[in-house]
Amino acid sequence: MAEIARRKGRGGGGAARRAARTAIEVETAKYIERKIPDLEMITEEALEIIEANAETVLEEIGVNFVDNPGALALWREAGADIDGERVRIPKGLARQLCATAPSQFTQAARNPEKNVVIGGRNLVFAPVYGPPFVHDRTGGRRYATMEDFRKFVKLGQMSKYLHHSGGTVCEPTDVPVNKRHFDMLYAHMTLSDKPYMGSVTEPDRALDSIEMSKILFGADFVDQNTVMTSLININSPLTFDPIMVGALEHYARAGQASIISPFIVGGAMAPASVLGTLTQVLAEVLAGVAYSQLVRPGAPVIFGAFVTSIDMNSGAPTFGTPEAAQITSGAGQLARRLGLPYRSAGSFNGSKLPDAQAAYETANSLNSGLLSGVNFMLHACGWLEGGLVASFEKFVMDADQLGILHRMAAGVSHDENAQAMDALREVGPGGHFLGCAHTQANYQTAFWRSDVLDYKPYETWAEEGARDTQALASERVQKLLDGYQQPPLDPAIDEALRAYVAKRKEGMPDAFI
User: Which of 175, 196, 301, 478 has its CA 20 to 30 A from that of 42?
Assistant: First the structure.
């Protein structure tokens, strides 16, 4: 009987180990704290030229604040020259105003263990933002739905190396345009406990985001803490439209963070040169950040740079190019000189499928962002087809690869264990390290391991169906969704959110444009 018991014990232990290997573990790695230097591609002389030229652009050419008399009044009071909707900013004024913006800030999550600090030596990953289409291996390319959106939020919650739930992970076209922000925010607030982004597509939707956040966190908490980081795109070149600026104004007044981000396609919306593009980027960001500080000194903001080049034959945007890497690096240098957190890079690619082109271009962009000192990386996973498509398979492929950036950013340890002198003494000449004590103690954590890619021998791979990476990623998507665990939320808060959404929706007719 004792022998049977021992056998059962061993069998149970084996089953437990197998279960541990196949179980889905809901874990979020802490945001990255870099221990490696930044790669700075632009010389000191060139940076000074860019800064001087950007000041000249603001003073001589100026920027347009369209259909926003309130903004023009604030600029006039600050000392800018106003000519119609054109704002010309005297040299030094924008930089002086930017000085009140914080160099870093904490964005609170409803799970405090998942708070993120944006700025300094830190790097926060957030998923793809804005695509109207989705793609998966079985259904192909199609318009996104609200159910697709919820799936992406669940995948984000389950992805270890993704620190942020993001915003418009895809654009759910089956919900009225004027009402979908309610459903998207509710999904982020209830299906995830990571930080999230607010709506910017109308100023009133920014207000809804603030009010819903007050229900989730408590009004006093939101008044005193940053709980949203939202994307304010500049209408490049040199134009601030009333919708984005209106959202910026609401977030700034509420002490919520905004990414002030030019949307640059080099050669089309900016000059066809690295220095010329950086000059325009800096001028636009200076004007946007300065305006946020006119609205509320000390409002948290991020220096944004979404930059790609253009294929001069087709007119299509290109990604993962050396010029984009140079601009990403240069913009990071300029952001640090201003003392501002920096947003750029992502899983950028122009491919129609999660294939080799997507992988090459994405790897170039992700690594460029890591080395350029990016603090907030929007579009870190899921981007396909130049941002038109959010891909489920690409999402998990990218989210898996973000683990490499975590490992790279940690640098190389040189403590006693890392020196491995005991292993070198134990093995000596002509031996191997597989069974030595150091290897046994470190093998589980010594090397980064993918949860998606295949490293099996050819024969095993063939016997299992000769699956390519897209097929493996498709299985990973399903595994994560099957293992999804919804984070608990106070039922009273959930009911209050539902009631707010229902009341607001009831008061407006459906609009699909």
Answer: 301
User: Which amino acid, residue 77?
Assistant: E
What's the confidence (pLDDT) of residue 263? Answer: 87
- Of all helices (H) and strands (E), which one includes residue 38? none
> What is the mean pLDDT of the segment spanning 198-212?
98
Per-residue pLDDT for 1 more than 50?
no
Report pTM: 0.94
- β-bridge mates for residue 125, sequence order: 377
- The pLDDT tens digits for 311-364 are 878 778 889 999 999 999 999 999 999 999 999 999 999 999 999 999 999 999
Report cis status (omega within 30 of 0) of the bond before 237: yes
Of the candidates 364, 411, 396, 369, the one whose C-alpha atom is nearest the C-alpha of residue 475 is 396
SS3 62: coil
Q: What is the pLDDT of residues 439-472, one digit of tens each?
A: 999 999 999 999 999 999 999 999 999 999 999 9
CA distance linking residue 282 with residue 94, whole number of Å: 11
Q: What is the DSSP letter of 58?
A: I
Residue 473 has pLDDT above 80, yes or no: yes
Instruction: Give the integer Cα–Cα distance in Å for 73 and 285.
Output: 20
Residue whose C-alpha is closest to residue 216's, from 236, 196, 234, 199: 196
Q: Which amino acid is at 300?
A: P
Q: At what angle do helices 44-56 and 322-338 cross, to 10 degrees?
A: 80
- What is the distance between the alpha carbons of residues 512 and 185, in angstroms, rounded to a whole number? 18
Per DSSP, the three-state class of 81 is strand
123: helix, strand or coil: strand
Spatial CA neighbour of 325 closest among 345, 302, 351, 310: 345
* Strand ranges of the sheet holding 63-65, from the earlier edge strand across to the other edge: 81-83, 86-88, 63-65, 239-240
Residues 6+ apart with CB under 8 A from 375: 104, 118, 119, 120, 122, 123, 124, 302, 341, 342, 343
Phi/psi region, residue 255 (left: phi>0; alpha: psi -120 to 50; beta: rest), is left
